[in-house]
Amino acid sequence: MTSKRQNYLYKICNLTEEKYTSQFFAKEILKVINSVEVKKFVTIITDNGSNVTIVYKLITDQFLKIFNVRCIIYYVNLISHNFLKHSFAEKIIKYYNILVKFFKNSHKCNDLLEKLISKY
């Protein structure tokens, strides 16, 4: 993301043939940092894999001003997979869908709900 909050895609590569070791990731990240300029980097967003944790250490040892941010989507994905394994998940989703349909179809209730939400 740029200073004007615009996303920036540097490069797309096919790395399916590579082994995802910490040394491989560190080498690839260093290539990007060095070609784009280190002063333009503030953070690296990662998941919580052990190989990526080691990469974070390798990168931040060399570049003290770059910090690591764990990707929230990674954690949401883990939580949702665990949730869906439980037998009550289907029932909760069914009741949730009933509530959503009710508020979508009832303009009066939907308006009341929106007012309550904005109040808090």
Describe this structure as you would to a colleague.
The chain is mainly alpha-helical and 120 residues long. It is elongated. Strands 1-2 form a two-stranded parallel sheet. The longest helix is centred in the last third of the chain and has 18 residues, at 88-105. The protein is built from 5 helices and 2 strands. It folds into 2 domains: 1-85, no CATH class; 87-120, no CATH class.
Give structural attributes.
single chain, 120 residues, mainly alpha, 2 domains, two-stranded parallel sheet, 2 strands, 60% helix, elongated
**Morphology call:** elongated
- Backbone CA Rg: 22 Å
Largest sheet: 2 strands, parallel
Number of strands: 2
Helix content: 55-70%
Specify the number of helices: 5
CA-to-CA gap between the ends?
A: 31 Å
What are the secondary-structure elements, in order, as H or E?
HEHEHHH
Q: Strand sequence of the main sheet, in spatial order?
A: 1-2
Low-confidence stretches: none
Structural class: mainly alpha
How much of the residues is beta strand, in percent?
5-15%
Mean pLDDT rating: 81
Give the number of domains: 2
